[in-house]
Amino acid sequence: MPATEIAPLRIGDLVIDPPILQAPMAGFTNAAFRQIVRDFGGAGLLATEMVNARGFVWLDENEAEHPDRLWGVADEPRPLAVQIWDNDPETMAKVGRRLVEEYQVSVVDINFGCPVRQVTQKAHSGSYLLREPQRMHAIISQLVEACSPTPVTAKIRLGCHPDNINCNEIAKVVEEAGAAALTVHGRTAADMFRGNADWDRIGEIKSHLKNIPLIGNGDLDSAEKVVTAFEKYDVDAVMIARACLGRPWLFAQAAAALRGEPIPPEPTLIQQRDVMMRHYQLVVDRFGEEKATILMRKYACCYAQGKHGARFFRTHVAKVSTAEEFHQVVQEYFPVAVPEPTDSRSSQPAPENG
């Protein structure tokens, strides 16, 4: 149970309760996934996949359909954040304004944390910009002006490299430029997702902020860790990322723990399979069976992760290309039972663990 009552998060005039955020994750946090998270509850603020601002402008100017990453945004419940990335202040401001006026989003978030080469080295965006505080300031300040009164937030990493950690300096820049909140992932860009998130460094950033809230992100894969983050580190909210992809009920578990209530148990394996199939149907409804089946392969692997026989299931589901094949593989190979203890005297090999 939390030692003290956890206050709601305030991002500008927006109140986020509980102060648990779903991270924007490219290729994963689309409208179908967000709906599954809402079904369970517990997430105070959901976010889209990150949107390439320059690509959005091109589609707009050529009267093409807006990016699939904005699927569902216009109609789904609020609050909802859309995360965008680029390195040009004017482009970012233009897209931010469109998101506010046309989509009525609750928050416009700026990605200064993505470590992927395509975004950093090729586009000089994402975490690459941590080495250019002045450009970050220009991007944030112009976006804040364009989006007003909708709040603008920023997500960063500790720095570009372990030898160049500048998150405290960057935090000041973010606040001075007018951002309404700062999210920090506790690794550097060079770390990618290796090692452990440094929550001590995340907590230290709070003393470098005057008025805006600090949101901590990294390695939060249990309700207990979420409670610890609030109790041990000076953060105003937390953001859950990779751990929720196969466990969308994690937000509800964390929210209950913050309220001091018993943590809801994990759904049974059969229930988890059913959640995955509902997720699949939502994707089919949007993209049709062929495209949805391809897209669902990676989600299916997430749902099976850590379960007995997961590797065997992944091997088969990675090859499906039709709805019939998907249903058959799930029916035959998705882990729905806990194996009986193996007799140590048996000459048969123990089943493989994924």
UniProtKB/TrEMBL annotation:
This is tRNA-dihydrouridine synthase. Catalyzes the synthesis of 5,6-dihydrouridine (D), a modified base found in the D-loop of most tRNAs, via the reduction of the C5-C6 double bond in target uridines. Residues 22-333 form the DUS-like FMN-binding domain. Keywords: Flavoprotein, FMN, NADP, Oxidoreductase, RNA-binding, tRNA processing, tRNA-binding. It comes from the Bacteria. It catalyses: a 5,6-dihydrouridine in tRNA + NAD(+) = a uridine in tRNA + NADH + H(+); a 5,6-dihydrouridine in tRNA + NADP(+) = a uridine in tRNA + NADPH + H(+). The keyword Transmembrane does not apply. The keyword Cell membrane does not apply. Belongs to the dus family. It is an enzyme of class 1 (oxidoreductase). Its cofactor is FMN. Its EC number is 1.3.1.-. InterPro entries: Aldolase_TIM (IPR013785), DUS-like_FMN-bd (IPR035587), DUS_fam (IPR001269), DusB-like (IPR004652), tRNA-dHydroUridine_Synthase_C (IPR024036), tRNA_hU_synthase_CS (IPR018517).
